[in-house]
Amino acid sequence: MPKKALIIGAGIAGIATAIRLAVKGYSVEVFEANSYPGGKLSEFEKDGFRFDAGPSLFTMPQYVDELFKLADKNPSDYFQYQKLDVLCKYFYADGTKLTAYADADKFEQEVSKSIGETTSAIEQYTANSRKIYNITNHVFLEQSLHRIKTFLSWSTIKSIFQIRQIDAMRTMHAANQSFFNDERMVQFYDRYATYNGSNPYSAPATLNVIPHIEQHFGAYFPKGGMYSITTSLVKLAESLGVKFNYNSRVDEIILERQTATGIRVKDGLIEADIVISNMDVWFTYHQLLRSHPALFPKKILSQERSSSALIFYWGINKQFPKLDLHNIFFSADYKAEFDHIWQQKNIYDDPTVYLNISSKYKTDDAPHGCENWFVMINVPSNSGQNWNKLIADARKNIIAKLNKLLGEDVSQLVISECILDPRDIENRTSSYQGSIYGTSSNSQLAAFLRHANKSSKINNLYFCGGSVHPGGGIPLCLLSAKIVSDWV
């Protein structure tokens, strides 16, 4: 009889872990509280518009392809994507427009023309970002930081000797100011802190690795939309014998002498050799292990949470040729915006607006002549704010900002609307306080302080997903699955 693995949650990391364990010969079952897989990486339709509900940026597709190759499948038979020539279009408050081309030379020329920064400054910054990646990737992202064997390898020892070069002792913002004279370029690179829900004025400059990941490896659009990542991986998992149980909320992780032996669901007790939680670690402990408080990692569970998001899904009765798949409308005062999010725990009246339009590439996502707008701003995690008032004020401020920068009364074009706020994110995805990336990365030791992928106190209990090492976002969630599989 093959060993049995039970996975709690059908988020992208849970699905990937299921695939990897099935390839290893495990009998795998996944239990998902919702009626659909994907967690944050889900979709919905309304009034003829289709929306990817959560993550909208796809980078490092090799981590998805790798799962098919592990199963001796041809990735393109299941999942296809195209590389973007334009990574994002940026609109500054002063009227400056900047197109971030995927081609490095073209991007340098665009920066020189639109902003006036020298190409040498961009080249130096790019080289620094690449250096941080080369030092950190194989150690800090692809392996567990909680296993002795990681620190006994030559690659880790080599990285440790280069640790000063990852720039962990100053903030992202301070580092970016040292590279550029123009505050618009500083703001451009500060924005990458939001890729893991952090604050560029607090987060270590090590996170300046992120631009390299986007610029060097590129950004992509899955041909079926972002949700096709989920559906293709579920199809692969099922072909390997993985069983998915939807509408199946797990009530408890069963322990015997500090060893996980199974789970309790509405249909009763299900035994297993190992249990993997793809649920946020806060809820894993406080809900599924609530009768064992002595086993809680209290310091980890009390860490600062990442930021959350407020998203307006708008069906727009017009098409905008000047916009692309990814668009950013910057705040005039970035420091004030982040102070509101992190210190005041509310929303600045001039927020930076991210606008994603998947119908630019997948035309059937919107009716003819229309566009599906995914309009998002970064907001604090939920700590009891008056969200109804914050949402109403934010909607008004977002529309005023878009009206000014697009020269169009957007409010008259919205013919369909749905809203997702931090309360909804927590309810739908079991993300504590609606924080998208688990804990924040606003400290120099953040990478070492995230919860490990294996419990140190409970045998046979593992963790994957954005709330544990190495972090949030699709690539890191997929890497968490790899780390769990290797550890198992």
Major beta sheet, specifics? Answer: 7 strands, mixed
Query: Taking all residues together, what is the mean pLDDT?
Result: 93
Fraction in beta strands:
15-25%
How many strand elements? 20
In order across it, which strands form the biggest sheet? 8-7-16-17-18-15-19
**Regions with little confidence, pLDDT below 50 for 5+ residues:** none
Nearest-angstrom radius of gyration?
Answer: 22 Å
Broad shape: globular
* Annotation field: number of helices: 17
Structural class: alpha/beta
What proportion of the residues is helical, as a percent range?
A: 25-40%
What is the subunit arrangement here? single chain
Distance between the termini: 17 Å
Write structural notes for this entry.
The protein has about 500 residues and is α/β, with parallel strands linked by helices. It is built from 17 helices and 20 strands. Helix 1 (about 10-25) runs parallel beside helix 10 (about 225-240), helix 5 (about 120-140) crosses helix 9 and helix 7 runs antiparallel to helix 8 (about 185-190). The longest helix has 23 residues, at about 120-140. It starts with a strand and ends with a helix.
